[in-house]
């Protein structure tokens, strides 16, 4: 990427469903995200946190408004262009992990690289698993791991290709205190040392000290 990562959210609305079943997930949201900034997004269940991540990470296109990143405006891009944007620039830790069940931890990471047509030596994959405390677990498949271990595989996978934008949805929800702090330190390091942009959805108060700011959502709006 040529310039430092940034994302500008300008009057974004997003709805799901039609007519009577319609839900407004985001209602006229404005927000700015900068390089070297660790933002936590909090708020009650259903307030629009995952929707916001989906829109700024190019997983969903807003109904209204614009999302302008340092790699260009992504709102209004077609599906192919959005997929290319995500592959090149984004790393995601999803609520529920979304690992491939048939693949080992190491193979899940290798698959992520292959989808991006990136080549890294095997030791880079081992180092990424080491960094989240999973050395020795590289050959295990998701159904042989605990929730916290799966979550850490998902974190390692999101960071392996060194994305400019990292989006994490409750990345410490199934982690014990020590593992949670370790993941937070890893993410913090990425922001401070490498100038990445991190948006993390979480209710986990233990993470607050690691963040530069905390945004709070309610009913599809940022309220503070
Ligand atoms: N795929 C979907 N289809 C229909 N409605 C949806 C869908 N995804 C989200 N919604 C609705 O949009 C609103 C915002 O949902 P969102 O997932 O962004 O909330 P959230 O803040 O991430 O909640 P949680 O903390 O429970 O993960 C909710 O009312 C939800 O029911
Ligand atoms: Mg959510």
From TrEMBL:
GO terms for molecular function: ATP binding; ATP hydrolysis activity; transmembrane transporter activity. Coiled coil: none annotated. InterPro entries: AAA+_ATPase (IPR003593), ABC_transporter-like_ATP-bd (IPR003439), ABC_transporter-like_CS (IPR017871), ABC_transpr_LolD-like (IPR015854), MacB-like_ATP-bd (IPR017911), P-loop_NTPase (IPR027417). GO terms for cellular component: plasma membrane. The keyword Ion transport does not apply. Keywords: ATP-binding, Nucleotide-binding, Transport. Residues 9-223 form the ABC transporter domain. Belongs to the ABC transporter superfamily. This is ABC transporter ATP-binding protein. It comes from Acuticoccus mangrovi.
